C-alpha cells in the first residue's frame, strides 16, 4: 500500500473501531496489543504514562506496546490502525486451520469435545488456536468430563488434542487475572485447583489412555505418568521447561518420572527441560508405542476399539490391582508438589518468565 497516497480520515478510523467489535474470531493477544497501542497513539500521541509495576502484567504489556511506538505521528498511527483492521477483517473471515465443526459446542463444554461411542469416551482438548493450552475453564471441564466418564457405560477413556498440538500445557494467561487478595491469593487458588485436578487422574477408575497427536508441554506431559497407556504420533515431542519458567514439577512427575525412566533421565527432563522426541520418550518408558503420523489416527483407534470390547469389569479390577497400592503415595506427592509450586508462582523467576512470554520476548 502506498502510505503517502493514503490518508485515513477520522471517519475511516471510527469505522475501523466498529469493525474490530464485529470480528468473528479473537485475533489473539499480540494483535490486540498492536491495535491498542495504535489506537492510543492515534488518539493521545506518544506514551507518557508511568510504567506499571512488574506484577501488573496486563497493563505492563499494554504500556510496553504503546511505548514501543515512540514518536510515531498520530496520523500514521491512525492509518496503520485502519490498515491492520482491514487486513484482519479479511483474514479472520476466511482462515480456518481447524477441522470443520470443531468450534461447535456439541457437548455443552466450551473447551472440550467429549464423545462416547464404541465403548470409548473420548475427551478432546479443543482450543487448537491456543495449542490446547489449559485455561482455568479447561481444568474444570476436564475434571467434570473425567468424573462423568468414570460413571458412564464406556469401557475405556481417551484424552487427546484437536489440531496440531496435544497441549502446550498451562495457559500462561492464567497468571494475569489477579483476584482482590493479590498474587498470594492467586497462587493459593492455583494450588487448590491443581491438587484437585491431578487428584482426578490419580483416582480415575477405568483404563485411561493418552492419544498424543502432536507436541506436548508442561502439565500435559507430567500427567502421562498417571495414564495406563500412551500412544504417540512420531510428530509428538515431550517438553517440561519448568526451570525455564521458574517453576517446579507437578502431576506427580517428581515421583513417577524417576520410577519410569531413572532419576537421571527424569532430571534431564524435569530440571534441565530437555525436550524428547516421541521415539526417545518411548525408549524411556513414558510412551507405550509410537506410530507414523500418516497412519496414527487409523492405527490407534483400531486398536482402542478392540480394547474397548474387552470385559469392562475385568479391566477396572486389573487397573485397580496395578495402581491401588500407589494411590496414597501419589496423593501425598501431589499435595507436596502443589505446595512447592504455590511458592514458586510468587517468585521473581516465575513472574519474569510469564511476563516475557506474554510480552512475546520469549518462547520455548
Ligand atoms: C493452575 C495449574 C497450573 C499447572 C502448572 C502447569 C505448568 C505447565 O504446564 S508449564 C508449561 C507452560 N507452557 C508453556 O510455557 C508454553 C508456552 N507456549 C509457547 O512457548 C509456544 O506458544 C509454543 C512453543 C507452544 C507454540 O509456538 P508456536 O507454534 O510458534 O505458536 P504460537 O506461540 O504462536 O501459539 C499460538 C497461540 O497460542 C497461544 N499459546 C500457546 N501456548 C500457550 C500457553 N501455554 N499459554 C498461553 N497461550 C499460549 C499463543 O500465545 C498464541 O496465541 P495468539 O498470540 O493469541 O495467537
TrEMBL record:
Q: Source organism's superkingdom?
A: Eukaryota
Question: What PANTHER family does UniProt report for this protein, alphabetically?
Answer: ENOYL-COA DELTA ISOMERASE 2, PTHR43684
Ordered alphabetically, the record's keywords are:
Isomerase, Peroxisome
Q: Which GO terms describe its molecular function?
A: delta(3)-delta(2)-enoyl-CoA isomerase activity; fatty-acyl-CoA binding
Q: Where are the transmembrane segments?
A: none
What name does UniProt use for this protein? Enoyl-CoA delta isomerase 2
Q: Where is the ACB domain?
A: 9-94
Report the subcellular localization. Peroxisome
Q: Which InterPro entries match?
A: Acyl-CoA-binding_prot_CS, Acyl-CoA-binding_protein, Acyl-CoA-binding_sf, ClpP/crotonase-like_dom_sf, ECH/Chromodomain_protein, Enoyl-CoA_hydra/iso, Enoyl-CoA_hydra_C, FERM/acyl-CoA-bd_prot_sf
Q: Which Gene Ontology CC terms are recorded?
A: mitochondrion; peroxisomal matrix
Q: What is its main location?
A: other
Q: Which Pfam families match?
A: ACBP, ECH_1
Q: Give the species.
A: Macaca nemestrina (Pig-tailed macaque)
Cited PROSITE patterns: ACB_1, ACB_2
Amino acid at each position: 500500500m502506498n502510505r503517502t497516497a493514503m490518508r485515513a480520515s477520522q471517519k475511516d478510523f471510527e469505522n475501523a473501531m466498529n469493525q474490530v467489535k464485529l470480528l468473528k474470531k479473537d485475533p489473539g493477544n499480540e494483535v490486540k496489543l498492536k491495535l491498542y497501542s495504535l489506537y492510543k497513539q492515534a488518539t493521545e500521541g506518544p506514551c507518557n504514562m508511568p510504567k506499571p509495576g512488574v506484577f501488573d502484567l496486563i497493563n505492563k504489556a499494554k504500556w510496553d506496546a504503546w511505548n514501543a511506538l515512540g514518536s510515531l505521528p498520530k496520523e500514521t498511527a491512525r492509518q496503520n490502525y485502519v490498515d491492520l483492521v482491514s487486513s484482519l477483517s479479511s483474514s479472520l473471515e476466511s482462515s480456518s486451520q481447524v477441522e470443520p465443526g470443531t468450534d461447535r459446542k456439541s457437548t455443552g463444554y466450551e473447551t472440550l469435545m467429549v464423545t462416547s461411542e464404541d465403548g470409548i469416551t473420548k475427551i478432546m482438548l479443543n482450543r487448537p488456536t491456543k495449542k490446547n493450552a489449559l485455561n482455568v475453564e479447561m481444568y474444570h471441564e476436564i475434571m467434570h468430563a473425567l468424573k462423568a466418564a468414570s460413571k458412564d457405560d464406556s469401557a475405556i477413556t481417551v484424552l487427546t488434542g484437536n489440531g496440531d498440538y496435544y497441549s502446550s500445557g498451562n495457559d500462561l494467561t492464567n497468571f494475569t487475572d489477579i483476584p482482590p487478595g493479590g498474587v498470594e491469593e492467586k497462587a493459593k487458588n492455583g494450588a487448590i485447583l491443581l491438587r484437585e485436578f491431578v487428584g482426578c487422574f490419580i483416582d480415575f477408575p477405568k483404563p485411561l489412555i493418552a492419544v498424543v497427536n502432536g507436541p506436548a508441554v508442561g502439565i500435559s506431559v507430567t500427567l502421562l505418568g498417571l495414564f495406563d497407556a500412551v500412544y504417540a504420533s512420531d510428530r509428538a515431542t515431550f517438553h517440561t521447561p519448568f526451570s525455564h519458567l521458574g517453576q517446579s514439577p507437578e502431576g506427580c512427575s517428581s515421583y513417577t518420572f524417576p520410577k519410569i525412566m531413572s532419576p537421571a533421565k527424569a532430571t534431564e527432563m524435569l530440571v534441565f527441560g530437555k525436550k524428547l522426541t516421541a521415539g526417545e520418550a518411548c525408549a524411556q518408558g513414558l510412551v507405550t508405542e509410537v506410530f507414523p503420523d500418516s497412519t496414527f489416527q487409523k492405527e490407534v483407534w483400531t486398536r482402542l476399539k478392540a480394547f474397548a470390547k474387552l470385559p469392562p469389569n475385568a479391566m477396572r479390577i486389573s487397573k485397580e490391582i496395578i495402581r491401588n497400592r500407589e494411590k496414597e503415595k501419589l496423593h501425598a506427592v501431589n499435595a507436596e508438589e502443589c505446595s512447592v509450586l504455590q511458592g514458586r508462582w510468587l517468585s521473581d523467576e516465575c513472574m519474569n518468565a510469564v511476563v516475557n512470554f506474554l510480552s512475546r520476548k520469549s518462547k520455548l
